[in-house]
Amino acid sequence: MIPIVSIIEVINAFVWGPWMMVFLVGTGVWLTFGTGLVQFRKLGFAWKMLYRSVRGKDLEDDSTPGEITPFQALMMALSATVGNGNIAGVAAAISIGGPGAPVWMWLTGIFGMATKFAEVVLGIKYRQIQPDGTIAGGPMYFLEHGLGLKWTAWLFALFGAIAAFGIGNMVQANSVALVFRTELGVPQWISGLFLAGMTYLVIIGGVKRIGHVAEILVPIMLLIYIAGGLTLILMRISEVPAAFHLIFDSAFNGQAAVGGFAGAGVSQALRYGVARGIFSNEAGLGTASIAHGAARVREPVRQGSIAMLGVFIDTMIVNTITTLAIVLSGVWTTGLTSTALTAKGFTTVLGPLGGWIVAFGSITFGYSTLLTWSYYGLSCVNYISGVRASLIYRWAWCIVIVIGALFSSDLLWVKFVWDLADTINGAMAIPNLIGLLGLSMIVFSDTNVYFPLGGKKSQTPPSPHNVEGILDERFLQSRLDSLGMTQMEKYLELFRQTHTRTIGQIESNWHNQNFDSLRGEAHTLKGAASALGMAGLSTLSAKIEELAAQENAGELEIFLDFIRPEFLETLENIEMFFDSKKS
Q1: At 295, phi and psi to the nearest 5?
Q2: pLDDT score of 457
Q3: Of all helices (H) and strands (E), which one includes residue 135?
Q4: How many CB atoms lie within 10 A of CB 267?
Q5: How buried is residue 479: exposed, middle or buried, by Cβ count under 10 Å (0-12/13-18/19+)?
Q6: Which H, E and C letters describe 545-570, residue by residue?
Q7: What is the tens place of the pLDDT at every residue in 330-367?
Q8: Domains with residue ranges and CATH for the chain
Q9: Residue pair 73/303 in contact by the 8 Å Cβ criterion
Q10: Which candidate among 112, 344, 363, 462 keeps its CA 20 to 30 Å from the CA of 190?
């Protein structure tokens, strides 16, 4: 075993060397500026869309392609990223790189938000219907159908299928079994069987059941961990300014040896901060686009906006809680590492309750990661071999959980599994980043159509026909304002139906080149526009009807690309206007 561990160490050092850090962070920087700093200027929009999804007010209906809601997709992605990397990973970065390492985590997270945004935009744009009728997205699909590099897509799927059993399975089962044994005295084989059974009950129901469990479990585990962390911070609130001074000073000046801490230079803080940050939020690995690719949504850019919140929550909130717990409590000088260091920080300030919070977080974070990574791995396996392998894969997944739990006390085995997982993660990132860079101009173009840099969108479609005044929001708002609440609600419902059904059917018929049905839907839209009192939309509908009669697919695409974001933005604004009137 020792020679194999040494070989993996060497490979891992190369895969996660400086070149990979530059590749990952550089891609994030490129995507950040190419999208016009989308993670800054549209963060509020993302929270608004998430809030709507939580309330069950998604701008889609059951006819929209997808398996789960936008909120469930985010919770699935979060259940994979908010895991033991936030507890053990952050602590490991601080124990080796010093208290300045989190600064580089935060900077990596800021650019990682743009990376995750682009991954999900492409994942949804190029997703495919599977033979069993389900929908699937992810890097393998945008690499094949976007870049035309099927061999690269196949490599990503291969690495993803292997990585799932490492970082998504054995590492998590290992950590959870360790907590069960040290905190509760539960034998490893019992915790392994328990975990495997609980996991199988969920994953056998497919992505819909995983999404349903994630939308309940993830918010609860996040709230408990964050509440415990905030309590700790409030109990040491007077020391917070000094803690941040230490963190930033160490990031740019290094940290001398103190107590059990061996000391760390700036390069160490940077290396381990970036590496653990990427490990924690998975921006650049491509996995999130697999979860979000199953979302019931038509607009890739809108779901991409929601997806980037995953990095914000994971890195800027949860990782910060762990960082402050370790620094404020002063335990970073003890020489401890991993989960033990985080647990020591919480128990130093909160007493036994702190240990229970960390134990609860480690168990629930690990279990939720097992669920979502099973879907990631299955999606990769399905891409390679087809859906016929699904049941065998799920059985194998649960068997490996037991194996991972049984070896939780073998430190050499644990190190081997973690190093191997790191190596395969790096291998996954390479084809994904190639896809992101190769298709970046498409991401920039789609983003600028949906979120124009100049502010308000032009009311003239990019077409020689110059149909103006498509959707007059002021007219709609004034009309709503003149109605009573009952009439207003009926009017708004007609607008919703026009968006989710008529526009959706027009798009579907265009994709299938069914011009006769498209003409009929355009005629229906024209009637709805008249009922809504929207002359511009009525004119556009007539134009679409005319182009469908001519079977002019190219010009139809231009008109549909224009009307889709216009209609969606107006619906969102009218919905908010209506909500404000009700309150």
Answers
A1: -70, 145
A2: 45
A3: strand 135-136
A4: 11
A5: middle
A6: HHHHHHCCHHHHHHHHHHHHHHHHHH
A7: 888 887 777 778 888 999 999 989 888 888 888 888 89
A8: 2-450 (1.20.1740.10), 473-582 (1.20.120.160)
A9: yes
A10: 344
